[in-house]
Design a protein that fits this description.
The complex is a heterotetramer of chains A (1127), B (473), C (246) and D (179). Chain B has 473 residues and is mainly α. Chain B has 17 helices and two strands. In chain B, α3 packs antiparallel against α16 and α4 runs antiparallel to α15. Chain D folds into two domains: 99 residues, no CATH class; 66 residues, no CATH class. In chain D, strands 2-3-1-4 form a four-stranded antiparallel β-sheet. The longest helix of chain D has 27 residues. The N and C termini of chain D lie close together (7 Å). Chains in contact: A-B, A-C, A-D, B-C, B-D, C-D.
């Protein structure tokens, strides 16, 4: 008999409510409970209240299902369009909100299960992002459930330095009011695009508060620099409009990646211009030039890429300007001469610059130049001038007038030194850690009250003696602007604060002595702005259009650049430069405790849980010569030497990357230590160091990850640091690299062609790979339509007749036949899909140690290959092309994994899904071995149950904190140890949609016709899910729409059309696995006049060189081999 | 060494003989020194009946403590997860499957000796078949540990058997692992039956000689009431012959099916049709290696020189030489086919085997399996018993590495270079594997202590006295 | 030499074979009966905090299932009603019954005088509002494992009655687990849905049987009617893993 | 009380037993048996017994095994719960052949062993022959012929004498104790 369910377990639901259970004994919890259900008496006031009550009732009633207890905020939240009027347990709700950041607010739709936000999606109402989100937005939901976040406010105890007292939020408020009364308050805030905060900050400044802002990676600085260079009051923000661009030149500007703002919109717009479905599109395809010191994902997309040290961009920009001015016949001779003179250092690249300039000028008005945000003022100014000369301002680029910058950290320092500050409030951020060049010790003695508002305890908290826990944005009210200023978006809470925390707005309100709560405040802001739309409508849509003002005045370059200082010396191998970039995993350090971000591999270096000092192969060679025992690069093996496989870019000791640790120093006190990693594609004398890891006071996840590069950030906060010397320490660090091998080895895995090739031969991809010269996979049915192939699995050359995709023992084929097409030409490698999938499918975090052992669990991985035909034996190439390929379960029709499973745990369903029944799996791992794509993931340990560092203790190990489990998707099984898992094509979404469509059709039939039983007739179309309804998590997040998913038995579906495109191919198609996920070959669009032009992409040349060695000859041989294929 | 030269000319037509002038045939008897039936009985029963020797106790305790490594390793594994081993993605099968194939390979010699050599009327098999069969049974038990415990959820391993259940779901018979379940369990069962059946007359002898009561009853129950009656012998011999006939295809099929674990997969380096014969040859090779490893010390300890003669050792060395050469041929043929097939994935898999990340394992394998046994061409070497013993150990080492090379080089570098990886075992892997040697030794020690080491009736029946026609043809 | 074993030992083999057969058979039968969900789940009948009588409310009063289990046709979960659903009647009927105390406590909470307004002395925790009482701890009876995703809405809307899985709840004074709800139970119906399909309006009518059916063989008529519904509605219950396991 | 079971005569060599057995057969005895430490080559024919029937059990076992294998595979993978696996047919004679094959051998082996047991009426731990004082030697190096009382030609005096005639040593009457 079943054991009687105890009262306690019922009320508290499943295990993962234990955190609340534990908290129940604390007074703070009792407070929430009381705040949670206060409206009982007034519940009959309105519809929404009633809905609210039902939720509560239901959530308690269904406690055993694991849905309960989460608090709803005190104010009603309005569901987004498709949400029902009332909440029904088991049916998720969707709310519009946005994610605050200094780079503009990102409009979001958040999925909530019984009051628990579980999944974040982009708000498609905001056109530039088109429903995509950045990887950080995806991961931010995990921060809400971070067990290390601040759960209350703390005050340094009188007992000792390291002990803290918990204080109530009422006490905090009283303390703040008192401090305000005493005066001499200064606030150091992290930057924000919040319009609400702006209003409050102005009020505070009026009250005499010193308001200053600091951001380590200040993406607002270019606009300020440009504004001041041109001499206007305020900033000038460059807003690219790449949808109209046909030629783009990026100057050290990772505008598709995480280093520049607006990257989602940029990605979407640029990649749209690279979508080629026919030869006609290919002719119109845009072309991207990228000059950069680091290898970024922008450089990966680029058709031409030039390696150049960041400090050399002034010269480069000058020379480029000179060329363009000459071609466009603009500017005076004196001006051009001056530009040429200042650009002399870039002469070595004169040919490249010239041809690039010619190309830009032929497409003037639709070309654009984008400077990197870390580049000096002069480059921004020149780019403005070039964009002006090219006639693209207002077309492909707009300059938006922005407000003046707030007081910066240096001015605050002055005020402090002048004893003008008694109380300093850090509003978010972590300046003590980031601005390490400042004399914080001096600060400390000058200020008596140091208060830190932060989402978790960090290095700045250690500096202060008062910590106020900050609410997550999913727990707060706010509103802010998007980066392009075209919209104001609301931030509405999905749930009331889980812990006793307050938002920054609440804190400012307290300082202002206002009793208004933030909801009313934000609502009043909206009402002031707009009288036509109700606030409810605003929340429902999640966006409100704005019309910002743009600047397009002509400038005269000569005057403005007249008195520029000396050009920086070009760096050499003895005199290196360091470029400080935001870390992929943690950005400026704020996501350092986010396990999803830590475990998501950096798109280029493929490192997880760590950052490394990236150096170029040239520098590596130099270091090897200088320090022969360094062990930076592995000894070339025989296979490397005779070109059988490419040499590794790092020493892998038993599969674990062993990286030597070096010291980089500018001066005595400005040194950092970090492991080095050789990255092909880097400018020879640049070292790339990322900021944000190596934090000293951080939660359990971020502890011990990476090195800290902030000490290199000088007092001017310039991210290009010169005159750096490098010295090995003799120690080594083990790096968790998820991809050991960087070369495709001439295998036709990612198939690429140039636009010109594509125009002459649209099916170039099908002339590659073993299947191009093996018997036809589908035999006599090779040319049959997709629907027939999907439903019947034609026999082809198999010795077996394959069963059709029918329902069990029937002649009826499955209603849909699911398939996916991934357009490699659209993928930039941003990796948002990896985290989106992790969030949607409850994929566990395994930790660095397990990643090192090759046990990462991501269902989709982004394979990154470098290709180069200039490879010389065992030398690492310097110039490489980058190819990305998202690989998840391919749902092969003749799946090798299924055949080998002894227990029927992985089988096909009638709709062509490769099902994985976790509960049937015994864990032989045979399927994973036999998967040619290696997409299956095994639960080697109880990742979900056991703490990451206690895995080896087995049942004796401590269990995981249950808080993150609240963010789990209740529609997906949480897997136990010993079972296999893999991509399911988001089967939970498929099933939910199918159910919804059927339920709707059935109810409609009953209601509309009034008939019942056998009198109702539903056609197949009534119960079929319309194309586009189901989006897989990876597809939904993708800003460039590179993933399509749908029904192959519907010839009109998007995915069917893509699969019928001649660019479509199956990876390892010759194995006759017949994957349902196919890829569309990548098309590059190089300029044949450029010095680095190659008639075929490197990857294609590598393939042809290996597959047809007879054709091997220098020069234009790729087209020969293609012709050879056809014979 | 005694031998007798027989002149065949009196049997075959003398005229013909004169014409052909055949060489004199030296017939070496299988039991030396004209031993009598009784001597054989005394010798073999004596081993069981004597007082337990001290060395036995020492060996037993040592073996038992080594065996505990496996026990501890498995307890840790089951309680904590497969992660305690070194397996990863892409190398999802690490040592576990290597060890499985290794042990099951060893478990081939016994059945081979008792069945195939029986059918081939190789009379010299009689003195070594019992011990080899015991070795087979114990090796199969050791082998069975690995596939059972390598699964993620051992407690559900019964799902591999066709047992009706409330979930109404069944095993999947297309999987080579499912075939393995049937092959290995059939092999274990049939080997045990065969072994036990062959032992019944011997158990009856011990029963009849027993002095202590426990012995009388213990062997009495095991002997099933065997009476040495001609009717018993008649059915027994027929059953023995049939079991030999059944075991011969079985022994070939088992390693064939084990090789299907690899050959049916589609990975480069695994997906080859040469695997079944290559694996069977390898299994026989390793099995005979292990037989030599075990019997040479036993021969010395129990003074069995009259029963396990140099002829036996020579014959086994010849088989090792032959199968070792077959294995070497298979290695070469794999390379040839990979090159000839012109599939770049396949080609790379083999180049990588020899020169890639596990090159050392490959060359250990080649030197132990191909080069080492070639020494058996030399008479001086096969007559040097200690040297034969050392080579037999090398054979075992080499065959373990063969499985390691096959399993790991392919998995660590297969189709997509992005998922290439490296596998190295953990301490738990090591302990669990080495523990099985202890476990095996425990079983083998119990066997030599309590069960007849050689089939007395069979040994006697190849002696001249067994001839009902008084030794005259 | 003498016989070691007495002569009766000769009969042991036969006896052993016979008894093994009998024991084996019994054990197998026992396991199939006692260790399967059919036995382990069916009949589970816990005591509820409030002795809600389904046979009275749903049977005699004829309350529709969906009155309380309001999510059943919209959501994957059927939902247990909150206290206010009970109170919509029991505010007036049996308003002071001691049996209903947990419901009232949950519903009114701090509102001791039950007027819906915060009166003097009611705000016991001093947060300025009326708080609800503790939830009624109903004991869960039907539960599928975590890895099984049963969706009520699709079944209820496609003509599968509550009675198929929950039995005649309208006749149960105290609800018990009536059907095994094992995988084979689910498959049985998914393979032969025609045995269970009925018009949508009759889904919550637990007493329903096909009207005008041949009294001699009502099952055959139901199968015909069910097949008619199955074909016309396009009912094709999934039999592959993805139908229920995600 | 004792029941007379038969008369035993021992022989020292396979040859003497072999010759004697031929004579016993020629004499027309039916219920008699030879006890030998080894299976003596050609003794069956000498005793006038035919071929063993064990192969029939083996064949029956083999056929049962093959059919069982086919039946379970067909029932489990094609009939009761057909699932699409790797695009392979639900049932085929080819893919599960290893299963048929192994089950054929397994059942045939069971048939053989149990057939042998059945034909030899084993296990039988109690038998009058064990009452013979030197029965134990038949496992070692002695041969023995026993003519049972049951035999129609058995004669209390003639039979022992006949055995002596054919070369039997230490003629012993075996008596079975009855209680």
């Amino acid at each position: 008999m079943i054991k009687q369910v105890t009262e306690e377990t019922l009320v508290n639901g499943k295990r993962y409510w234990k955190s609340l259970d534990d908290l129940a004994s604390k007074p703070s919890f009792k407070n929430w409970v009381e705040r949670e259900f206060p409206e009982g008496a007034s519940m009959l006031e309105g519809v929404q209240r009633r809905g609210f009550m039902k939720l509560m009732a239901a959530s308690f009633g269904l406690a055993g299902l694991g849905m309960t207890g989460c608090r709803r905020p005190e104010h009603t939240i309005l569901p987004y369009g498709k949400s029902p009027e009332e909440l029904i347990p088991g049916v998720p709700n969707y709310y519009a909100t946005s994610m605050p950041s200094a780079q503009g607010y990102t409009p979001l739709i958040v999925e909530s299960h019984e009051g628990r936000p579980t999944k974040i999606e982009g708000n498609p109402s905001y056109i530039p992002n088109g429903g995509g989100t950045s990887i950080y937005a995806q991961a931010s939901v995990l921060d809400l459930y971070d067990p290390d976040r601040s759960k209350s406010s703390l005050k340094r105890s009188e007992e000792g330095e390291d002990s803290w007292d918990v204080i109530s939020s009422d006490q905090v408020k009283d303390d703040l009011v008192n401090l305000m009364k005493e005066g001499k308050v200064a606030i150091l805030a992290e930057k924000s695009s919040s319009t609400a905060r702006k209003v409050l900050s102005k009020q505070l400044i009026e009250k005499g508060v010193i308001w200053s802002e600091y951001e380590a990676i200040d993406l607002n600085s270019p606009e300020i620099k440009l504004g001041s260079a041109i001499g206007i009051d305020g900033g000038l923000r460059l807003i690219p409009n790449l949808g109209k661009a046909s030629r783009v030149l990026a100057l050290d500007c990772d505008f598709l990646g995480n280093r520049e703002p607006f990257s989602l919109a940029n990605t979407r717009a640029l990649m749209k211009g690279r979508k080629v479905l026919s030869a006609k599109d290919a002719k119109k395809m845009n072309r991207l030039y990228s000059v950069e010191s680091d290898l970024t994902i922008t450089g990966g997309v680029a058709d031409h890429r030039l390696r150049l040290e960041s400090s050399q961009f002034i010269a480069f920009a000058n020379l480029l300007a000179a060329e363009i001015f000459t071609i466009r016949k603009s500017g005076t001779n004196a001006e051009i001469e001056r530009l040429q003179k200042r650009g002399q250092a870039a002469e070595t690249h004169a040919k490249w610059i010239k041809e690039c300039a010619v190309d830009l000028c032929t497409k003037h008005k639709s070309s654009v130049i984008l400077p990197g945000s870390h580049l000096p003022e002069e480059v921004h100014l020149i780019c403005y001038a070039i964009n002006q000369v090219l006639g693209c301002i207002g077309r492909t680029v707009k300059y938006q007038a922005t407000e003046k910058a707030a007081t910066n950290l240096l001015s605050l320092q002055k005020a402090v030194l002048k004893d003008e500050v008694d109380t300093l409030i850090f509003l978010g951020g972590n300046p003590v850690h980031q601005a390490s060049s400042l004399d914080w010790g001096n600060f400390s003695t000058k200020i008596s009250n140091k208060i830190h508002l932060g989402d978790s305890v960090n290095e700045t908290t250690s500096f202060c003696d008062y910590h106020i826990g900050q609410s997550h944005y999913l727990e707060s009210w706010d509103e802010g602007k998007t980066w392009d200023g075209s919209a104001i978006v609301p931030v509405q809470p999905l749930l009331a604060p889980l812990f006793e925390t307050i938002s920054d707005l609440e804190l400012l309100q307290v300082l202002l002595g206002s009793s208004q709560n933030t909801y009313d405040f934000v609502k009043s802001l909206h009402e002031k702005r707009s009288s036509t739309n109700s606030y409810d409508d605003f929340l429902r849509l999640g966006i409100e259009k704005q019309s910002p003002s743009y600047y397009s005045k002509e400038i005269s370059l000569l005057e403005l650049i007249e008195n520029k200082e000396e050009l920086p010396e070009p760096p050499t191998l003895d005199n290196l430069e360091v470029l400080l970039i935001p870390d992929f995993h943690s950005w400026d350090g704020r996501y350092a405790n986010n396990g999803w971000m830590q475990e998501c591999p950096d798109p280029i270096s493929k490192l997880t849980w760590d950052n490394a000092l990236l150096i170029s192969p040239a520098l590596a060679k130099m270091l090897e010569e200088k320090y022969p025992t360094l062990g930076l690069l592995p000894e070339p093996t025989m296979l490397n030497k005779n070109g059988e496989i490419a040499p590794d870019a790092a020493n892998f000791d038993h599969g674990k990357q062993k990286a030597p640790i070096v010291t980089l120093s500018i001066s005595e006190d400005q040194t950092i230590e970090g492991p080095i990693y050789v990255q092909p594609g880097l400018a020879d004398c640049s070292i790339i160091a990322s900021l944000g890891l190596g934090r000293s006071n951080v939660g359990r996840v971020g502890k011990g990850t990476g090195y800290n590069a902030y000490p290199l950030l000088g007092s001017n906060f310039d991210r290009i640091v010169s005159n750096v010397s490098i010295e090995p320490t003799g120690e080594f660090e083990t790096l968790a690299n998820v991809q050991e091998h960087w070369s495709m080895e001439g295998r036709a895995i990612v198939r690429e062609g140039n636009a010109e090739e594509y125009i002459t031969d649209e099916a170039f991809a099908s002339h590659m790979g073993a299947e191009s010269h093996s018997p036809k996979i589908w035999g006599k049915d090779q040319e049959a339509d997709l629907k027939f192939k999907a439903q019947t699995t034609p026999r082809g050359n198999s010795s077996y007749d394959h069963p059709d995709h029918n329902y069990e023992k029937s002649e009826t084929p499955g209603l849909h036949q699911w398939g996916m097409a991934i357009d490699l030409n659209q993928c930039t490698g941003c990796s948002a899909c990896v985290v989106a999938c992790q969030s949607e499918n409850n994929i566990p975090i395994v930790g660095k140690d397990q990643v090192l052992r090759g046990r990462e669990m991501h269902w989709i991985r982004l394979d990154r290959y470098f290709s180069s035909t200039a490879r010389d034996g065992a030398e690492l190439p310097s110039d490489v092309q980058v190819s990305f390929q998202g690989v998840a379960c391919m749902h092969c029709e003749t799946a090798p994994c299924e055949t080998v499973c002894p227990v029927n745990a992985t089988v096909h369903d009638e709709e062509g899904l490769n099902a994985m029944a976790y509960n049937r799996c015994v864990g032989t791992r045979y399927c994973a071995n036999n998967c040619p794509y290696k997409v299956r993931r095994f639960n080697f340990f109880d990742w979900n149950k056991r703490k990451t560092d206690e895995l080896y203790k087995g049942p004796l190990g401590e269990e995981n904190d249950p808080l993150p489990s609240m963010g789990k998707n209740p529609d997906v099984t949480v897997r136990m140890r010993g079972v296999m898992e893999k991509c399911t094509y988001c089967v939970q979404r498929i099933q939910e949609s199918k159910i919804q469509v059927k339920v709707k059709a059935q109810r409609n039939a009953l209601l509309v016709t009034g008939k019942d039983g056998g009198d109702i007739e539903l056609s197949k179309d009534d119960i079929k899910v319309p194309d586009g309804t189901i989006k897989t998590a990876c597809q939904q997040v993708c800003p460039s729409d590179s993933i399509s998913f749908g029904d192959l038995s519907d010839p009109e579906s998007e995915v069917s059309k893509l699969k019928n495109n001649p660019r479509d191919y199956s990876v390892l198609g010759y194995l006759n696995t017949r994957p349902r996920t196919t890829f569309l070959a990548k098309v590059r669009n190089p300029n044949n006049r450029m010095p680095d032009f190659a008639s075929s992409p490197h990857a294609a040349r590598e393939y042809h060189d290996k597959a047809h060695p007879a054709h091997h000859e220098e020069g234009d041989h790729a087209s020969d081999t293609i012709k050879g294929e056809k014979h | 060494m005694s031998s007798k030269v027989t002149d065949q000319s009196d049997v075959i037509s003398p005229e013909l003989m004169n014409k052909v002038k055949p060489a004199k045939w030296e017939e070496v008897p299988l039991v030396l020194n004209n031993r009598s039936f009784h001597w054989v009985t005394e010798k073999i029963c004596g081993i069981v009946e004597q007082k337990t020797p001290t060395w036995w106790w020492w060996c037993f305790i040592t073996a038992l403590s080594i065996a505990s490594f496996t026990g501890l390793g498995l307890v840790y594994l089951v309680s904590t997860g497969v992660g305690v081993w070194g397996n990863n993605n892409p190398v999802n099968w690490g040592w576990a499957i290597v060890n499985f194939v290794f042990w099951i390979g060893i478990g081939h010699a016994g059945t081979l000796i008792s069945a195939v050599l029986c059918l081939l009327k190789q009379k010299w098999r009689t003195s070594i078949n019992r011990a080899s069969e015991a070795m087979t049974v114990f090796a199969v038990i050791c082998a069975g540990i690995f596939p059972l415990f390598h699964v993620g959820r051992v407690w559900f391993a019964w799902w591999l058997f066709p047992i009706p259940n409330a979930n109404a779901i069944w095993p999947q018979f297309r999987s080579p692992l499912e075939w393995d379940v049937f092959a290995v369990s059939t092999y274990a069962t049939v080997s045990i039956l065969f072994w036990y059946m062959g032992m019944i007359p011997d158990l009856a002898i011990i029963r009849d000689r027993a002095k202590e009561t426990w012995r009388k009853y213990f062997y009495g129950v095991l002997a099933m009431g065997w009476r040495n009656a001609n009717n018993h012998w008649r059915n027994f011999e027929m059953a023995y012959l049939l079991l030999a006939g059944l075991s011969t295809p079985l022994v070939l099929s088992v390693h064939t099916i084990v090789s299907f674990d690899f050959a049916v997969a589609n990975l480069p380096g695994w997906h080859t049709t040469i695997f079944p014969p290559y694996f069977v040859a390898g299994a026989i090779f390793s099995g005979f290696g292990m037989v030599l490893t075990l019997l040479l010390p036993l021969r010395a300890i129990f003074r069995l020189h009259d029963l396990i003669t140099e002829k036996h050792i020579h014959n086994m060395c010849k088989i090792i030489l032959a199968t070792g050469s077959m294995v070497g041929y298979a290695y070469a043929m794999e390379f040839f086919i990979a090159w000839y097939g012109a599939n770049s994935y396949e080609g790379f898999a083999f180049i990588n085997r020899a020169f890639g990340n596990y090159w050392w394992a490959y060359w250990i394998m080649v030197s132990c399996n191909v080069i080492c046994p070639q020494l058996f061409w030399f008479k001086g070497i096969i007559n040097n018993i200690p040297l034969v013993w050392i080579i037999s150990i090398f054979v075992n080492i080499g065959m373990w590495f063969e499985r390691f090379v096959i399993a790991n080089t392919t998995l660590s570098r297969d189709f997509l270079p992005s998922s290439w990886g490296y596998y190295s075992p953990t301490v738990v892997d090591l302990f669990t594997f080495f523990g099985t040697f202890g476990f095996f030794s425990v079983l083998f020690l119990l066997f030599i202590r309590f069960l007849p080491l050689m089939p007395m009736a069979e040994v006697k029946s190849v002696m001249p006295a067994a001839d009902p026609h008084g030794g005259k043809h | 030499m003498r016989n070691l074993f007495p002569s009766w030992v000769n009969t042991i083999p036969v006896k052993v074979i016979l008894s093994l057969g009998i024991i084996g058979g019994t054990v197998t039968a026992g396991i199939t009966y006692y260790a399967t969900p059919k036995y382990t789940r069916v009949g589970y009948q816990p005591t509820q905090p409030v002795s809600y009588d389904h046979s009275f409310h749903a049977g005699q009063l004829g309350l529709d299932c969906r009155y309380c289990h309001h999510g059943v046709d919209k959501s994957s979960h059927a939902n247990i009603p909150g206290a206010q659903v009970c109170m919509s009647c029991h505010k007036n009927i049996k308003a002071d019954s001691p049996l209903l105390a947990p419901i009232r406590d949950s519903y009114f909470g701090e509102d001791t005088n039950r007027d819906g307004i915060l009166s003097e002395g009611e705000d016991s925790n001093g947060d300025g509002s009326l708080n609800q009482g503790p939830a009624v701890p109903w004991v869960r009876i039907h539960k599928t494992p975590d890895y099984v995703y049963f969706n009520h809405a699709i079944h209820v809307n496609r003509g599968v009655s509550c009675v198929e899985c929950h039995g005649r709840v309208d006749k149960m004074k105290v609800v018990h687990h009536d059907k095994p709800l094992s995988m084979s139970f689910c498959l049985e119906c998914h393979r032969n849905p025609e045995k269970s399909l009925r018009p949508m309006k009759e889904v919550t009518n637990l007493d329903w049987s096909l009207p005008n059916s041949n009294p001699d063989n009502p099952h055959l008529d139901q199968i015909h009617a069910g097949l008619d519904i199955k074909n016309k509605w396009g009912v094709n219950p999934p039999l592959s893993c993805t139908g229920c396991h995600r | 009380m004792n029941i007379k079971y038969g008369v035993a005569a021992t022989f020292n060599s396979a040859k003497s037993l072999f010759d004697a057995a031929g004579k016993v057969r020629e004499e027309g005895y039916k219920e008699w048996e030879c006890y030998t430490p080894i299976p003596v080559h050609g003794l069956d024919a000498q005793m006038g017994i035919g071929r063993s029937k064990v192969p029939r059990f083996t064949l029956a076992g083999g056929i049962t095994g093959f059919c069982t294998g086919m039946l379970i595979v067909w029932y489990m993978n094609a009939f009761d719960y057909p699932l699409i696996v790797g695009g392979k047919p639900y049932f085929s004679m080819i893919y599960p052949f290893p299963v048929f094959y192994e089950l054929t051998i397994l059942f045939a082996a069971f048939g053989t062993l149990f057939g042998m047991f059945f034909l030899n009426r084993l296990p039988r731990h109690n038998h009058p022959i064990f009452e013979h004082p030197s029965f134990g030697r038949t496992g070692d190096d002695k041969y023995m012929i026993v003519i049972e009382v049951e035999d129609h030609k058995f004669d209390d005096e003639a039979t022992p004498a006949f055995l002596k005639d054919v070369g039997g040593k230490s003629i012993t009457v075996i008596r079975e104790p009855v209680n």
